Write the structure tokens for this entry.
Amino acid sequence: MNRRIDIKLFDFPTKEEMLPLFKKSPLYEYNLKQEVFEREDLDIYEQVLNYSPIMRDRVNLLNSKIFQINLSYAYVSYYFQRGIPDDFDSLKHITNEQATSRVHFQHHTDSFFQRAFTTLDLLARLLFDYFGLEANPERNGTDITFKGVLYMLPQREKKLFRKLVSVKKSKEFKIASDVRNDIIHNNPPYRMHIREEVINGVKFTKSVYFSSEKLMKIMNDFLWSIKKIFEIVKNYISNKKRNSMQLANAIKN
């Protein structure tokens, strides 16, 4: 006989429970400054009427997304620490409280990955406009996404491209990208399922399942990757501006 599980849909943490978890995010209180993306090579009309207002709006939106990522991370941390059974035998004897924590954990995990990659896409839009990049439909498409803009960067900024691509190719970034794609397009990894794969021409199936502990580590590592990307961009542009100013002063003198 099947046992009824009662999920508490509105079982939320208190402010006192959330704040310490919110502060544990690697991106806690992190903001990108508008000054980073200011351009001095535009005429006054383009600067005032077009570029600057759009840039400021996008920076504000990006910082808002960073806050939302931190909020999602705090929620998944809260439900994770309440205890979520991860092995198959434990799931057969799951309690109502554990089932409630598991459902909320999965919901906020979905939100975390979608918001995190949206934040990178917003950063990409800022880079696209700041460096005056041009999309090449035949090579990298026309979508202004993090991946698309990354491979447009060699047009103007090869050093920045090499720095960012090293993060994108890291195992921490790659597994986070795989999780995000599975959540949106396939079976989310927190749901045990069968996946078909082909290796060396041989087709086989395997069981796929990520425990809540593994997902927590993936999310934490990915937050550090995002922070590293932000820092690379901020430092690269700041150094580029400083070098340009020093060169200009040297020419004047």
Q: What stands out?
A: Residues 133 and 152 are 7 Å apart (CA to CA). The chain has one domain: 15-252.
